Amino acid sequence: MPFREINSKVVEAQVAPGQKMFSQRGAMLAYQGEVSFTPNISGGQGGVMSMIGRRVANEATPLMTVEGSGTVLFGHGGHHIQVINLAGDTLYVEADRLLAFDGALTQGTMFMGSQGGVMGMVRGQVSGQGLFTTTLKGHGAVAVMAHGGVIELPITPQRPVHVDPQAYVAHHGDVRNKLSTALGWRDMVGRGSGEAFQLELSGNGAVYVQASEEKL
Q: Which contiguous run of DSSP H or E holds residue 186?
C-alpha cells in the first residue's frame, strides 16, 4: 500500500478493497472515498502477544485499522515524515514513531537485550523501563515520524555508525547494536547533561537519524 509524500509533514495513502493498513490514532487528516477507521485492540498483525509485550513495556501506542477504497492523508503533530520501504526485511522502530504502515507487514515486539529497542536500551540503563521495541517485517511501506527531518545512513562491516540515541529513529538490516557510555563526549561539546550514551550500529543495513534530539 504505497505512500505518496505530499510534503515533508503529510503523506497520502491509497486504500484498496481487500487490503488494510494501520495508523496511529489521531493521524488521519482527511480522506476521500469509502474509508473506515476502526480502533485496533489486538496490536496489529502481531496479535495479542504483540499487544501484551508493548503493554508490559508501557509503550502501547493506540492503532486504527484503515480499510475501504479511497485515499487518506496522514500527519501528526507537525512532525516530519519519512517513508521507509521494506523488501522482506525487518524494521526496528520505537512504537511512538509509527505514523502508519502497510497491513501486509507483520508486527511484533523485540526484547531490547536481543536486538532493537534502542530507546528502550537507554531507558533501561537509566530507569529499568522500556524493554521492548516494535518490529515490522515483510514487503510494504512504513511512514515514521521525526523532528527536523530524517537522514538515512548506510551501515557496513567496514563502517559502523555511532548515533546519539536521542536522535535515533529506526534501523533495518542485519545490524547489531551496542550501547555504551561516552565519558567526556558531551562535555566536549558543552552538553554535560549526564546522558552520556552513544549507540554503535554495525553489520549491514541502514539507520535513520532525525535532525534533532527532541522527543515526540
A: helix 185-188
CA-nearest of 124, 123, 27 to 79 is 27
* Partners of 85 in beta bridges: 141
Q: For CA atoms 153, 156, 100, 212, give the dihedral sign.
A: negative
Question: Contact 28/99 with Cβ under 8 angstroms?
Answer: no
130 or 72, which is more confident?
A: 72
Is the model's pLDDT at 7 over the cut of 90?
yes
Q: How far apart are CA 39 and CA 41, in angstroms?
A: 6
The answer to whether 150 and 211 are in contact (CB under 8 A) is: yes
Half-sphere exposure of 8 (CA within 13 A, CB side): 10
Q: Three-state DSSP class for 126? A: helix
pLDDT band at 84 (very low <50, low <70, confident <90, very high): very high
Output the DSSP codes for 43-70. Answer: -GGGHHHHHHHHHHTT----EEEEEEEE
What cell was used for 214? 527532541
CA distance 19 to 197: 42
Cell reading at 169: 529513529
**How is residue 96 annotated by DSSP?**
G
- Angstrom distance (rounded) from CA 172 to CA 190: 32
If you average pLDDT over every residue of the chain, what do you get? 78
Percent of the chain whose predicted confidence (pLDDT) is above 90: 46
pLDDT tier for residue 183 given thresholds of 50, 70 and 90:
low
> Which of 1-5, 46-50, 67-71, 207-211 has the least mean pLDDT?
46-50
